[in-house]
Amino acid sequence: MPAFSTTSSGTLLLFGATGDLSRRMLLPSLFALHEDGLIGPSVAEGGVRIVGTARSEHDDADFQAFAKQALEEFLPADRKDESKLSAFLERLSYQTLDASRIEGFEALAEKLGDTSGGLSIFLSTAPALFEATIAGLAHAGLAHQGVRIGLEKPLGNDLASSRRINDAVAAAFAEDQIFRIDHYLGKETVQNLMALRFANMMFEPLWNSAGIDHVQITISETVGLEGRKGFYDETGALRDMVQNHMLQLVALTAMEPPAEFDATSIRDEKVKLLRALRPVDARDMVRGQYSAGAVKGGSGSVGVGGYLDDLAEPSGTETFVALKTHVDNWRWQGVPFYLRTGKRLAERRSEIVIQFKCVPHNIFSGKNARLKANRLVIRLQPEEYVRLQVMAKEPGLDRGGIVLREVPLDLSLTDAFAKARRRIAYERLLLDLIEGAQTLFVRRDEVEAQWQWVDAIRALWASESMDTKPYTSGSWGPNAAIALTERDGRSWND
Ligand code: BG6
Asked: Which is more confidently placed, 431 or 78?
């Protein structure tokens, strides 16, 4: 069993402890860490204590009952061991807090007691309460050097507001105490992208404009608004998905090899890459909004309403965006990066497609054989695999010519690592926060480079009055998104 780290904080403080993220992700993740001995023995024996806080009035017992219910609902049946569950619940306590009132933080500090053994804070709070929360923590002595703070999105909605938030946090915490969360970085397959690129010899020599024709990144979802009307309509797909998750995938796919696998080296390379992203041209962007249609559900196709039906009011917010961009550095000159993401699309799928160039000369052309260029598909979810499409000859005597066919060289991560339990991103991220490992968190300069690029897109939408184009739920987005690749003689990997 892996050891309880000596760098672990003694206490974890969860803001928004009775919210949806806590119920679905954080509490099940913490239970998994408890099960594996990663947050130490019981609190009495020096293990991590978990204190929840939220606005609603509860006591410790209520919060434990809330957590119990969440675990019963979200843990797989074979992991509901009663004695482990009750030992986990003993770690939990609760303090009601109205973050808009500074006095509340004194009571919180009293509840936490001695935090000299280290305090990790997970903060996911309404943007309006952000600055008051940071000020309250500082006021109550909860921003000392032994404190780490994890920040969940949304952290601003443009460069200016993100800077304001970053400044407010920086007034109380040093950058090495700040852990900005992008849950995509906690996904196993996203980290595997670095292993694929930097632990194998065969890809790197071709990983540039000499070997690669273009790159595609798709994050498609079948879900719609999911009860997040207010937030989503204010935000839209560009800010909800591209500014963070999508740009992280671009950075990890395209960055230069870092010298070491550590927080500074990796984040230095990502930020260099993000700063090299070319501003997107108005003709290279598509905004879409879903209309009624049918999407894949548990047992076949399910009819669904359009975005405006879900919202029940008029809106110009995009639920889909497709873009073509370039990375302006030596490695990537002339290689387009096509990005798309949206809700209510044909499939739930996150993938990176590396389309290699064709061989320079087809020696089989005299034998009527057609060649296709190699394509590497890195599927992040729902399946986890790396698939390289290579050309092979169909068996036979070839009297009528040689027939070459594309066949996959397949690495199914699910099969190759069948014994390893698949962990949800928050298990990894919470443990890294508690132990103080910053590699998988986003640095301030990265976030600001992301916003700068995204703000330029939004400014063009405004100046060109670029409206959303409707697309049928269950499709791959507006026709214009298909035209974005087709007019360059390329196709999405659908
Ligand atoms: C969140 C977005 O950050 O990521 C959601 O706010 C989106 O709109 C979610 O559904 C997607 O995450 P995942 O892990 O399901 O791909």
From this structure: 431
Residue nearest to atom 14 of ligand 1 (CA): 184
CB 96 within 8 A of CB 54: yes
CA–CA separation, 161 vs 151, rounded Å?
15
The full set of domain ranges for the chain reads: 11-183, 185-421+443-486
Decide whether 11-183 matches 185-421+443-486 in CATH topology. Answer: no
Q: Please tell me the pTM assigned to this model.
A: 0.96
Q: Residue 1: pLDDT above 60?
A: no
Mutate to test the pocket of ligand 1, among 155, 183, 185, 379 (most ligand atoms within 8 A of CB): 183
Q: Which residues are catalytic?
A: 245
CATH of domain 11-183: 3.40.50.720
Cα angle 274, 352, 361; round to 5: 100
According to CATH, the topology of domain 185-421+443-486 is Dihydrodipicolinate Reductase; domain 2 (3.30.360)
In this structure, what token pair is assigned to residue 94? 């609760």
Q: What is the per-residue pLDDT across 196-253, written as a single tens digit (0 to 9) for each?
A: 999 999 999 999 999 999 999 999 999 999 888 889 999 999 999 999 999 999 999 9
For residue 466, the CA-to-ligand 1 centroid distance in Å is: 25
Q: What is the CA(11)–ligand 1 centre distance, in A?
A: 28
| Cβ atoms within 10 Å, residue 33 | 23
Gap between the Cα atoms of 450 and 444, Å rounded: 10
- Residue 57 CB neighbour total at 10 angstroms: 8
User: Closest ligand 1 atom, CA of 223?
Assistant: 10
Distance in Å, CA 182 to ligand 1 centroid: 10
Question: Closest Cα to residue 245, out of 330, 297, 180?
Answer: 180
Q: Is 82 exposed, middle or buried (0-12, 13-18, 19+ CB in 10 A)?
A: exposed
Query: Ligand 1 pocket by C-beta < 6 Å: which residues?
Result: 221, 240, 350
DSSP result, 147-216: EEEEEPSP--SSHHHHHHHHHHHHHHS-GGGEEE--GGGGSHHHHHHHHHHHS-TTTGGGSSTTTEEEEE
30-74 pLDDT, tens digit per residue, is 999 999 999 999 999 999 999 999 999 999 999 999 999 999 999
Ligand 1 atom nearest residue 235's Cα: 6
- Phi and psi at 452, nearest 5°, equal -60, -45
